[in-house]
Fold this protein.
Amino acid sequence: MSKQLIECVPNISEGRDEQKIQDIAGVVETVEGVRLLDVDPGKATNRTVITFVGEPENVIEAAFRLIKRASELIDMSKHSGEHPRFGATDVCPLVPIANISMEETVTYAHKLGKRVGEELGIPGYYYENAASAPERKNLANCRAGEYEGLPEKLTNPKWKPDFGPAEFVKAKTTGATAISARDFLVAYNINLNTTSTRRANAIAFDIRERGRVKREGDSLTGKIVKDEKGNPINIPGSLKAVKGIGWYIEEYGIAQLSLNLTNISITPMHIAFDEAVKKAQERGIRVTGSELVGLVPLNALLEAGRYFLKKQERSVGVSDEELIKIAIKSMGLDDLKPFNPRERVIEYLIEDKSSKLIDMDLKAFADETASESPAPGGGSISAYVGALGVSLGTMVANLSAHKRGWDDRWEEFSNWAEKGMAYQKQLLQLVDEDTNAFNKIMDAFGLPKGTEEEKAERRAVIQEATKYATEVPFKVLDTCFKSMEVMKAMAETGNPNSVTDAGVGALCARTAVRGALLNVKINASGLDDKSFATEIVSKGEAIAVQALSLENEIMTIVESKL
């Protein structure tokens, strides 16, 4: 069963004392199985965002230790900063990452809060999905009044803490803590060429979902307009799932929009950025760049890269690295300081760091193949040859998208290039997966075989590994065959100056199909499940016949254009 993973993103009320920050963040690494991903301090806000990930029980243990250490080192009675805050560990959200539901994550949030209240005596509130009441769902409501308002708030029956004592004695130094289970939130600041907090706030109110209170006359100082029940009327902002304020950052000498993108499938970073550009221009202000606080999912940057390339009417069928580069430059993520995706993208930080074939240079890969080790073998090489083949088809698509005089066809070829890159990614993953499959068989043969029970268990594991080692090259041949659609389309309609590249791509793909089929056959021969073995070999042979026919068709097209 796959591991359950949750992320924890505590925000502590210290962003200036580096020793304290490192001391507090360091306790995370005292818990086995928890990986500290990021520590992002802000001097002006006097706040640090810490990010770590692991299995649920380990993560909440690390979170508890962090909250405890923060309460020992941070004195809230002496704290000041630009960001709203009410506690040493101001917020501590848990985010489901893999193989865990939001409901399960809520349970862990409640478990953490209960322990913080009982063992540390720190009062606090559950918010977002962990909230105990509708009015507590919004963090802004829980934190209203901030630290200075806690003496009154904690004794107000309406705002009795969800955990910890309803008194200010202990909280005088620790403040309160808000704990939640929530979806992935992107903390995103947008830089302005102004020093005016008032103007930054006005733009933030234009954008954020909550908008602004309706007023008579001046939108900031006019009399508040109320409904028949006496409640203030709000004018909604232009973007859903966005919270935001404006502030001045002395460290940079500029005002910023401080946005929380609470659901990036509704409002992604690039849409928030472009909307800020639009709203700022309407007020005579220019956006100069932006700043990501903490980590971001890979897809958020890839989507942004595609978005800005499409605006330029350029092909989006390029590598992840190129898409990320376009996203960084388009949104000015490196405006204030360098932006290193390897340190800011969550998938890159939690990926398997073990050596991979596809991370080798060409010579090292060739030398590794030529060595006396039986892996990588024919299956991995077939996958790699297939990846090279579809890369050629993708190249033709990209050249066609940017061909002079074909400007009105950029999207047609961009779509083909995007398909090609998807096939290439699959095949590059299969380069390593095929070698891993072979290693599973070798590991299985190394199991003990003394007792009858051990022999039976060993044989079962060998059979399971062999089945997997048969399925992987079948994926290779199937993917290579399907990828030939790109080469055919490019031979037919692509840049005629590159038609031979489409032809070479087709030859590579068909070679990869034949090579992978050989691996399917030899591995299937070792299976006890003869029905499965016969079926998968039969399917593979049928695909190989189709691949040969398609290769001939493509080569006929290529030859006709020479």
Q: What stands out?
A: Residues 5-181 form a domain with the Formiminotransferase-cyclodeaminase; Chain B, domain 1 fold (CATH 3.30.990.10). The chain has three domains: 5-181, 186-350, 357-560.
